[in-house]
Design brief:
CATH architecture of chain B: Orthogonal Bundle
Subcellular location (chain A): Chromosome; Nucleus
Strand content of chain A: under 5%
Order of helices and strands of chain A: HHHHHHHHHHHHHHHHHEEHHEHHHH
GO molecular function (chain A): chromatin binding; protein heterodimerization activity
Radius of gyration of chain B: 15 Å
Number of helices of chain A: 23
CATH topology of chain B: Histone, subunit A
CATH superfamily of chain B: Histone, subunit A
Distance between the termini of chain B: 25 Å
Order of helices and strands of chain B: HEHH
Structural class of chain A: mainly alpha
Number of helices of chain B: 3
Helix content of chain B: 55-70%
Oligomer: heterodimer
Largest sheet of chain B: none
CATH class of chain B: Mainly Alpha
Distance between the termini of chain A: 98 Å
Strand content of chain B: under 5%
Largest interface: A-B, 90 and 65 residues
Biased composition (Acidic residues) (chain A): 140-150, 298-336
Number of strands of chain B: 1
Domain CENP-T/Histone H4 histone fold (chain A): 389-494
Shape of chain A: rod-shaped
Biased composition (Basic and acidic residues) (chain A): 337-348
Shape of chain B: elongated
Structural class of chain B: mainly alpha
Helix content of chain A: 55-70%
Strand order of the largest sheet of chain A: 1-2
Chain lengths: 515, 78
């Protein structure tokens, strides 16, 4: 390294450059001439410009170089590299740590198989006379090549896609199976109670799987076909029918799936008699009691048909705890379920034949209307609302709210447009705000044993809301947010009471004018 | 910044507060109350604008307002 700095390397150095200069090759010459310039940086730059390696030489000494020259080049290169590599201390330390296991292996290999050579692949350069270090480098490179070769294997993630196709087919049966399992479990839970009551009905179990077909057929015995049972409903109640049809078809599928899965079905077959009892039991009381319970058969049939799709599952479950006699209760439940839809349907298409089911519906209607009244009970006839103290109060006029909202919406960056829905929401929010404000102010006033909400209450409130603090006085806020007319009347923060009185009078007059 | 030149309905505000608090309201409190309301509206609209922007909506919608209302009310709880 010392001799590199010298201006004339070929003349002065006896030890190192001797072989180099001794070699008459043309390749060694320029490298020496380049190496001579003073600073290393300059030399590096010029070498880079000449297309030489960073070590300052051509990578290989050339075929003509003597072994001595090669060795000299190698040592020089290694030294240069050692000098010129940045952070060499760090690298060296890393290298050592990194190579320790490998060096162990290498030593072992040298001892055990001194004559073997690394298997040279076609990709690796055929340098047979390389040192162990270069061999190491080669092995590393080969490893890298292997990794790169392995890379293309990764994108074979497409395999799962094929698996998905396979998955799809199992999925469908699985869903229905799950549904069935739920239903069956529910039914199976019910089993023990039902089983004792009616066993002769077991014969019905044979046709069983279509639970509610059964019901429908039995309930209206006149209706022969299933479709005939459904379609009249479609004519009568359009909205309900859509839903019911959907449910019906789902159940059909599930039934079909159930039938398809013979194994499971057979498994349940052991339990089925009980199930059958349950289902038949559910249906039977309805059939039997319906005439007694409902004098006009037409209306009943329609109503029952309407509710039928619910029954096999919901109705059955509901009926479970009470005994079969509770047909009236079951009917009540059904009414509860369908009452909303029925109300809508009736408004859409009233049926002349449904005179009997009306009374409960009217009751329900009355209750619902009562509910509406109770829910909206705050609103009085004039559109005013009642506070919890029973005092009427108007809400802020929407125009004012909208004006404020648009202003602040503009200032907050978005367009000043506010949809009616949003305005409604804002009105609701401001109502709540005033309610909360009133509560808070009342609490403050009561705490001060006053019956009047005072300025001080409001100031305390704003301080607690962290709207005002040492930096922002309420007056500054008012100046920023309130029109000047209001500012005139606001100059109160800590004013003497007499002053406030005067301005209060002025404000009162203004109040009456405005309102 | 002052929202419009038209005054707000002072009597209405007073009535609202009186109904909610079951207390009398002194003369000029309603101005401060209205100021507080203005601040509330400012916060509400700011939050709603942020919310609607986050939700990718155009302009302020009822959904964003409703979402933000509770938070803002809590902020203005005395």
């Amino acid at each position: 390294m010392a001799h590199e700095g010298r201006p004339t390397a070929n003349t002065g150095t006896p030890a190192r450059p001797a072989p180099v200069s001794g070699t008459p090759t043309s390749t060694a010459r320029p490298s020496i001439a380049i190496r001579t310039p003073g600073s290393q940086g300059r030399g590096l730059r010029s070498q880079a410009a000449l297309g030489l390696s960073a070590s300052g030489r051509k990578p290989a000494p050339g075929p003509n170089a003597t072994p001595h020259a090669r060795a000299a080049f190698r040592t020089l290169d290694s030294r240069r590299a050692a000098i010129l590599t940045p952070h060499r201390a760090r690298r060296r330390s890393l290298r050592e740590t990194r190579e320790t296991p490998r060096s162990l292996l290498l030593n072992l290999g040298r001892v055990l198989a001194p004559t073997t050579e690394p298997i040279t692949t076609s990709s690796s350069s055929p340098g047979s006379a390389r040192s162990s270090e270069t061999r190491n480098a080669d092995t590393i490179l080969e490893d890298d090549d292997d990794d790169e070769e392995e890379l293309p294997k990764r994108p074979r993630l497409s395999l799962p896609l094929d698996a998905d196709d396979d998955d799809d087919s199992p999925l469908r049966p699985h869903r229905s199976a799950g549904l069935e399992d739920e239903n069956f479990t529910m039914q199976s839970i019910e089993l023990p109670r039902r089983a004792a009551t009616e066993q002769p009905r077991l014969s019905l179990a044979s046709a069983r799987m279509s639970d509610y077909y059964f019901n429908a057929n039995e309930l209206r015995s006149e209706d022969v076909g299933i479709d005939s049972g459904f379609f009249p409903q479609a004519g009568a109640f359009e909205e309900d029918n859509v839903d019911f049809d959907a449910e019906a078809y789902d159940r059909l599928d599930s039934d079909a799936a159930r039938a398809d899965m013979g194994g499971r079905y057979s498994d349940f077959g052991m339990v089925i008699p009980d199930n059958m009892n349950e289902s038949t039991f559910v249906m039977v009381p309805q059939v039997q009691e319906s005439p007694a319970h409902q004098p006009p058969p037409d209306g009943d049939d329609e109503s029952m048909g309407e509710n039928e799709p619910f029954d096999p599952w919901d109705g059955g479950d509901d009926d479970m705890p009470p005994n079969p006699d509770d047909d009236g209760e079951g009917g009540g439940d059904d009414d509860d379920q369908g009452h909303l839809s029925r109300l809508e349907d009736r408004s859409v298409s009233p049926d002349g034949g449904r005179s009997s089911p009306r009374p409960p519906e009217t009751d329900l209607e009355a209750t619902s209307s009562n509910k509406d009244a109770s829910s909206g009970g705050k609103v009085t006839k004039r559109g005013k609302k009642l506070s919890k103290y029973g005092i009427e109060y108007p809400s802020l006029p929407p125009a004012v709210v909208k004006r404020l909202a648009t202003t602040f919406a503009k200032t907050s960056g978005s367009k000043g447009k506010i949809s009616p829905d949003a305005l409604k929401a804002i009105m609701q929010a401001s109502d709540w705000f005033f309610e909360q404000l009133g509560d808070d102010l009342q609490a403050y006033a009561k705490h001060a044993h006053r019956k009047t909400i005072d300025e001080s209450d409001m100031l305390t409130l704003m301080k607690r809301q962290r709207q005002t603090n040492a930096q922002t006085t309420p007056f500054a806020l008012a100046q920023r947010h309130l029109p000047r007319e209001l500012l005139q009347e606001l100059r109160m923060p800590p004013p003497p009471p007499t002053k406030r009185q005067k301005k209060g009078n002025a404000g009162a007059e203004g109040d009456e004018d405005v309102t | 910044m002052a929202p419009g030149q038209k005054l707000y309905p002072r009597g209405t505000v007073k009535k609202i507060i009186k109904a909610h608090s079951n207390c009398n309201v002194s003369k000029n409190v309603d101005v401060t109350i209205f100021l507080d309301y203005v601040l509330f509206m400012q916060t509400l609209m700011k939050e709603a604008a942020i919310e609607s922007k986050q939700g990718g909506e155009r302009g302020i919608t009822a959904r964003s307002v409703r979402k933000v209302t509770e938070k803002t009310l809590a902020k203005f709880k005395g």
